[in-house]
Every structure is written in C-alpha cells, then in structure tokens.
Amino acid sequence: MSLGATLVASLLATLSQPATWPLALAAFLVRGGILLVAAPIIVVPSAVGVANVVTPTVSTFVFGGLSAGLVALALGTFALCLVWLILGGLVAAAAELEVIARIVRDDAVPVEAHVRTEVVSSTRLAARILVARLVAHVPTVVALVWATVRLVEVAYLELTQPLDVTLPLVVRVIQGAPDAAAAVLVAWVVGEMVGAIAARRVGLADAGVWRAVGGAVRRVVLHPVRAIVLYGVPTAGLLVVLVPSAFAAASGWDAVRVALTEDVGPLATILTLTVFVGLWAGGLVLASAMTGWRAAAWTVDAAARVRVITDPPTRGEAYAEA
Length: 322
What we know:
By secondary structure, this protein is mainly α. The chain has helices at residues 3-16, 20-37, 47-64, 68-104, 123-136, 138-160, 169-176, 178-205, 209-222, 224-261, 266-303; strands at residues 306-308, 319-321.
C-alpha cells in the first residue's frame, strides 16, 4: 500500500470513527501532551523567580549536604513520577489498544488476511504495549541524562551571569545548548516511531515485547522515509491545530484574568470566560481529531503489511511483512 494511500485511508477511518478521537487524545495527554494543552494558562517564571526558588535548595545541598527535607522532596518526586509512568502509561496503552481495535475494523482500512481484526482489550496487552514503548524510549532517557548536564551548566551561567535578560530563561538556555535540545528531540521522535509500530505489532499480531520492538526498529531502519512521513504529516497537522489554538486560548485567558481582577461587571466576566472555554474546548476537539489521525496512520500501515504465519495467531509466533 502506497504512502499516500495509507495517509488517505487513515484519515477516512479517523473521520468515520469519531469515538477514537477522545481515546487518542487521552493517550496523548497522559504521555505529556497535557503540558502543551495547559501552556496557555501557565505563567513562565522569570530568571529571578527561578533563582529565588532554586538557590536555597542548591546552597543547602552544597554547604550542608543532604537534609531530611531534601531527601523527602527527592523521594516524593520520584514516587510521583513512577506512579504517573506506570498508571498513566497503562491508561494511555489501554486507550491506544482500543483505538487500534476500532480502526482495524473500519471498512476503509485494507487488512492483511491473517491480521487479528478482533483485537482484545486487556490489561495484559496494555502492559505489553507500555513496556514496549518504555523500551523504545531507552535512547531518549540516555539523551535526556546527557542533555540535562549540558542544560544545567548553561542554566547556571544564565542565572549567575546572564548576558541577555530580555529573552526568557528557557530560550536562553536552549540557545546556549542547541545540541542537547536536538539530541533529545531526535531521540524522542525515533522512540515515538518505534513505540507506535511496536504497539501495533502487539495489538495486531500478539507479538511479545522484544519481538515487537525489534521488528519496529528494523522497520524504521529499512524504511526511514516512510516512518518519518507517517509520523511527521499527522504531527504537523497536530501542530497546525495546537499552535493557533494555544495563542487564542492564551489571549482569552489574559482577558479572563483582567476581567477577574478589574471591575468590568458580571456579564462581561461571564462572556469573557465563556469565550475562553470555547476557544480551549475547540482546540481540544481539533487536537483530538489530529491525534486520532496519528494513531490511525500507524494502524493502517501495520494492518496492510503485517502477516501472521499461523492462523489463528498465537503469542510468540513469528510474523512476516507484506
């Protein structure tokens, strides 16, 4: 199946399956998209504000060593991240599995003869998808650790000896270490591509984690252009939706803050709040459609080429690609 036909078929399947939109959006939000959606109402702290918060903690650690409060903060942060990673990851994997099941049953999707069209939503498969995605992002973790060291060095210099205070701190830090940001971005994109393909191999062919991830890596290496286009085109559509929606929602949120702090009257306040909620909700609806298309593109591509050697497919059996 050609690349263009795959994108068109996945778009048609997405439009005919609106129930997949909130499922795909939920997976996107849990996996970090909530930060992009909430960006319009997040106030970025200034360099002075960050320094006032960070400096006491750093000074305590440097001059006094580990304190009970610092250890408790570190353990609490680690526990919170672990809970989010496991429970949130399972929720996202279950939602992704349901999207796969709905898309592969759509009439617009050409399915290889031996692909499982009756995808069973189960905790076992969701857990396997979660593990496969985590394994796919191991290079991202490595890149993130290396980049963190670079970014901390630059951030320390910007906090202590800033060269240009007119730019936001985040922008100055990224400008000071573009290689670190690029490494994390590339590793993240590759991890997303490998993880998405591996998830479809689990859902459609009941593959084990290592077989699914290994096959996904092989697919990306052998067909990099196809993988990049399947990831890039729907993602570009998502960005086209998110960026103007974020600016519109940010403007609406600024108007809400003004209405709440100044005496503009209850009617104007309610109207302003309604406009903001409408802009934000509209952006979420459009984002859900684009995330649904992203999920459908990978599913259509996998359903058209994955062929299980045995029928019915059993876990651990080898499979080939059309």
